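Troubleshooting: if your tokenizer reports a length mismatch, compare your output against this known-good record of 492 residues.
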Amino acid sequence: MKKNILKTFIILALGAGISGCGNSFLETNYYKGIDVETGLSTVDNISTALNGTYYDLFYYYFAGNYAINIGDIPTDISYWNGKTGHFDGIYTYTYTDTDTYLKAIWEYGYKTADNAARVIEASKALYENVAAEEKSELDRCMAEAYALRGYAQLMLVNVYAHQVKVNGTDHSSAPGIVLIDKPIEALSQVSRSTVGQSYEAIVSDFNLAIMHFDAAGGDRQSLVFFNKAAVYGLLARTHLYLEDWDKAMQYAQIALDEKGIAELTYGTAKYKALYNNEASNTESMFALAITQTDNWSANSCGTLWSSYNYSPSPKLQALYGKNDCRTSIFEWDAKSSPTVPIFKAGKFSHYDSGNPAYGTNYIVNAPEMFLIIAEANLKGSNGSLTKAQNALLTVAKRNADITSVSDLPATSDGLMKFLKDERARELFQEGLRLYDLRRWDENAEVYAAKAPTVSFTYTNYKISNLVFPIPSAEINAGFGVEQNDWSSILPR
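Known-good structure output:
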């Protein structure tokens, strides 16, 4: 009954508080904020609630750390030197359904999706009865809320469900996630959709985001708020996972055009300058609002990839050429040794201050779009080897020894192998490697040990079958969420 349901709250402003999620599906606690059942009745309150949803997104439990890094850490491109215990269960494939990282990602992914849904519904309820100027504001709020929900649910389906396509094999009928198409009453009974239905909802959200940006007359033209370029980029990424090559290629190019990017940054000094501060990356389409004053300190990505002892694996380091500008941000602590490497943050560097805790996460970036265009041209029936080479060259020129397509493989198979390595080189620390390995159906090498040699504990692992467990607290709450068959597919 209603009297037994704790009301859901959305925070008043960034950092003011958090709408909570307990052991039951979307059960909430009381925090300082706007009561979404009665408080989202003005455009100003909706706009404020939207800011609160961004806070849920960039909290370190979700895109501010855990949900990004889980895509890189249990793969072949990361190395853990064992000096601290952060992410160790994920890295070593000894996690369980009580893993705190997996619980946090689930919790904050659904906070983001549910609060975004509440912003959308409240905006729709007000829309017909406000002035034209306020309609434009509501359209922008809805556009960003649709993007937030689409992104959150894409991350959730990546972590807690099977890859939708694996080298041409369709897994869309596999169990997906609990979709938040409308706000869910706390303590409601729910059920998981299929992976295919999850992707349909994600694509729909991104398309609706574009529609409302257009109705609003554009976006905020800000790196730290969702914008059209970023949403088109996410549409490209989503269609890449769906193996819809034509749409992946199309949306990637639109994203680049929206951002006005035709080339990337080359040369050591210029590349390193991309990571000077939270606003310096001119290749990024969307980044989190993490700054020198607003950051997660010890819980930051920069700390994880420095004093918490994660670094690029010896295998990844060997993939870079000696004149590759991307290694200019591969710095090492004075105490680092070949056997116990201590990294200094990489893409989470913040060279203006020298403190990696201040480095932000660049979520959607131009280099990924060129790589999507290249792969779509290689795999799609309407693709072109020449176009694939040209798109790939734009990224591969980060290595100064590659200057023209003649320096790239001349066959489709050779170019695809090069592209896989190029995605490892370019997208390191962007949290995409796990999903690449799964969708390519790679026989993966995971859990690297014994630096500086390249030695993996598990080899020939069929990583395409990997799904993480849904937190046991959610399953045991009895609100209808069914567990994955996750333990039987762990590497042995």
